[in-house]
Amino acid sequence: MKRIFTLLFMFTAVLFLAACGASEEKSGSADSTSDKDKVPTSAKTEKVIIGIDDKFAPMGFRDEKNEIVGFDIDYARAAAEHMGVEAEFQPINWNTKEVELISGRIDLIWNGYTITDERKEKVLFTKPYLENAQVVLTLKDSSIKALSDLAGVEVGLQAKSSALDALNANPIHKEVKAITEFADNVLALTDLKTGRVKAVVIDLVVAEYYMAQEKDTFKLLEESLSPEQYGVGVKPGNEALLEKLQAALDQMNEDGTAAEISEKWFGENKVLK
Fold first, then answer.
1. pTM of the full predicted structure?
2. 87: part of which helix (H) or strand (E)?
3. What are the transmembrane regions (predicted)?
């Protein structure tokens, strides 16, 4: 009886050890497969989320296929490539662009973003990369020929844009009949064409784009309201990203990438060095 008990104990022990070995082998195999399939952290591409106004041609807008295109889109993609990161474009409400940036929902504001002293208090800026100006666009047959003719006239512009600052900085703003703010330039120009406003204060690069698209519709006043420059807005405290981005933009000037993109959209190299 004692011998039978001993043999039974030894048989149970052998089964237990065999089961443990199989379990360890299976576990080791699973771990090996997991390590093999796992992508190293260093190989993962960092993503930079870029806030844009997708109705701001030719800087950033949707084409006939509803794809986001434009000078700033190509420029940002090239910069991201130079930085070794992936660019993701996020259309935002331009009225709340700084809130989007500071909250961390986007990493950059990059779409015809004018550098102003007021904005410098809220965000970090790259060096200016493009010259611009705020100008007045009217219908081709309009009797408005000079800034002084805006007296008694209803003027439209994009809300929370530098267009409002430019108009308010000019004495004529006290004489206009009313200032109507729109969510974007497309809506402002639509109301201009229907006669609900008689003039639109708008970025020069945007005005030139729409004048080229609709040659017999608009005219541009010779007097501009104010010169300005575009820059890229970076979240305060993220100096590391700002430095990396500026280095990429500088490199793009040196290797000809910036000039190539500018010539594609403007027919000449307008990028500042």
1. 0.81
2. strand 86-91
3. none
User: CB atoms < 10 A from the CB of 42, how many?
Assistant: 5
Q: In what order do the strands lie in the sheet with 86-91?
A: 86-91, 47-52, 108-109, 233-234, 124-125
Residue 197: what pLDDT? 98
The CATH number of 131-228 is 3.40.190.10
**Structure token pair of residue 148:** 């002084």
Structure tokens at 212: 């080229």
Classify domain 44-129+231-266 at the CATH topology level. D-Maltodextrin-Binding Protein; domain 2 (3.40.190)
Query: How many Å is the maximal CA-CA distance in the chain?
Result: 120
Q: List the structure tokens of 265.
A: 């959209």
Reduced to 3 states (helix: H, G, I; strand: E, B; else coil), residue 256 is coil
Task: Tell me the domain boundaries of the chain.
Answer: 44-129+231-266, 131-228
The pLDDT tens digits for 37-47 are 333 333 446 99
Mean pLDDT for 57-79 is 97
